Amino acid sequence: xxxxxxxxANRDFYKKELLGxxxxxxxxxxxxxxxxxxxGTGLEIDQFDTDAATYLIGVEDGRVMTGTRLISTxxxxxxxxxxxxxxxxxxxxxxxxxxxxxxxxISPEYREKGIGPIKGQFCSAVMDFCLQEGIxxxxxxxxxxxxxxxxxxxxxxxxxxxxxKVDGKWCVVAYMQVSEAARDGAMASGGIDRSILxxxxxxxxxxxxxxxxxxxxx
Length: 218
Known about the structure:
Layout: E1 2-6, H1 15-32, E2 54-60, E3 63-72, H2 78-81, E4 98-106, H3 118-133, E5 137-143, H4 146-153, E6 157-159, E7 164-166, E8 169-177, H5 180-190, E9 197-198
Parallel strand pairs: 1-9, 4-5
Antiparallel strand pairs: 1-2, 2-3, 3-4, 5-8, 6-8, 7-8
């Protein structure tokens, strides 16, 4: 598997993969989980899929098998717009060095397949991207069962609120600390010893400096 970095700067190189990515999201989040109503397009696209979003798309043999979305927490994102009430420790976390990580999936036919656990491989690519981009923390709202996986990777997790039920599932807003050790822990779990992150075409930096006179509001 290779994990490709896709942004508004290079999406023309990835038209097929992006279409597959949104189709797989529909399979998972509309058909399987029932989180959203079916709009008849066969694609799952929400208000946070803007030009500012970064997509990490795992591809094998020309087919999308896994993927996720990263958004700067300085912009509107799920935790700030939909789940601010779950960030009651110190409020919604906003920083140019903190990324929200949402809409992650592994296509059903690839679950528990591949050389080593695919979750470990893909999560190592997420950490690899964050290291390359200078991101210090990555996370967001997640079902509680993910915390067991992060512990297996040896990741350090910082919740910003207490667990609560969302659509009948226990969830928490939490952020993982980005480090080489975190990346290496996921790589070891995934049975790989080198990066699987791929960049093609023009690149768009994740952290964008504020314009003159502008500041980031926490």
